[in-house]
Design a protein that fits this description.
By secondary structure, this protein is an all-alpha fold. 74% of the residues lie in helices and 0% in strands. It comes from Lupinus albus.
């Protein structure tokens, strides 16, 4: 008889689990290739359309999946070094390849605004579901009613669903990445448990289990409620941490822009003060020259008046002398 064959069977083919992404984004987001030439992009400005917003939400979802895969394989220092600006550059490349011509700063700011609007709508929906008699649903309100309630007026249901899907997927992915660690510790624990002598304990346990039949159904109720609360707390903490990561980058960028604008305004102000002082000095010199010219003109006019009066006095004196001589001549002729 021949023994069983010992040739190993080939392993079954495994399907890739990562989502489909365009090859342009994978090459242009992580590190540029040597053959690709960097092009100057002309970004679109103005209000975001619904299609552009949905493309941004899809890019953020794929970026979260990519970041979770890289953090599980890389060290924390490397992961922290690669986050931030490169992350939003990846989102920009994805949006650019799908027709959304926006920059990474625009994507970051728009995502912050979307999260803020999403939280407002979510809180309002939870309050309206608890008190259905007083508050109506957000989706039945018009723009004027939304503004009166301090709610975002341009939130669309498709955008709301897409953002909630991104946050829920991030929560489930983080839970699945954290679950294998306790499972590994439990796999190594069964050998010491087998050494503990358990045979003498079963005889007294059956009457206890018979006397307490209603206890088992209570256990899942108490175990499900903390699970729901833990999930809600974990989802809230995940959203808060994501908001802190996104807002910290935007805050740093705004602080840099604010510092540069302050420096520019200080330079412009100093230049304006300098030109103002120079103009004041020039105006003072011109006023002094005008005053000197006015004094000279006044002196010349006084001199002309003085000379005229002296000439008039001399003429009057000559005239009186001529009259006197004429009178004397007449008197002499009369005596003869």
């Amino acid at each position: 008889m021949t023994g069983p064959s010992t040739t190993p069977l080939p392993p079954p083919p495994t399907l890739p689990t990562q989502p489909h992404q365009p090859p342009l984004i994978e090459g242009g987001a992580t590190e540029p290739s040597s053959s690709s030439v960097p092009l100057i992009r002309e970004y679109r400005k103005g209000n975001w359309t619904i299609q552009e917003t949905l493309i941004l939400i899809t890019a953020k979802k794929l970026d979260d999946e990519r970041r979770l895969k890289t953090t599980t394989t890389s060290t924390p220092a490397c992961g922290s070094r690669n986050t931030g600006e490169l992350r939003w550059k990846w989102v920009e490349n994805y949006c650019w390849s799908h027709g959304c011509l926006r920059s990474q700063n625009q994507c970051n700011d728009k995502w912050d605004n979307l999260l803020r609007d999403y939280k407002k709508v979510r809180d309002y929906e939870t309050k309206s579901s608890l008190d259905s008699s007083s508050n109506s649903s957000y989706w039945t309100l018009n723009k004027q009613q939304r503004k009166e309630l301090n709610l975002p007026s341009n939130m669309v249901f498709e955008m709301y669903q897409a953002i909630s899907e991104v946050l829920q997927r991030k929560q489930t992915q983080r839970i699945t990445t954290t679950q294998p660690q306790p499972l590994v510790t439990k796999a190594s624990s069964p050998p010491p448990l087998q050494i503990i002598p358990l045979p003498p304990s079963p005889p007294p346990l059956p009457p206890l289990s018979l006397h307490q039949p209603p206890l088992p159904p209570q256990a899942p109720v108490s175990s499900t409620t903390p699970a729901v609360s833990e999930r809600s707390q974990s989802s809230q903490s995940i959203e808060d941490s994501d908001d802190e990561d996104d807002s910290s980058e935007s805050k740093r960028r705004k602080i840099r822009n604010l510092g540069s604008s302050i420096m520019k305004s200080a330079t412009v102000l100093a230049q304006a003060l300098k030109t103002c002082e120079e103009k004041k000095e020039k105006r003072h010199i011109e006023l002094m020259k005008l005053e000197q010219r006015r004094i000279q003109v006044e002196e010349a006019r006084n001199e002309v008046h003085r000379q005229g009066i002296a000439t008039l006095i001399a003429a009057v004196t000559n005239l009186s002398g001529a009259i006197q001589s004429l009178i004397n001549n007449d008197q002499r002729h009369g005596q003869r």
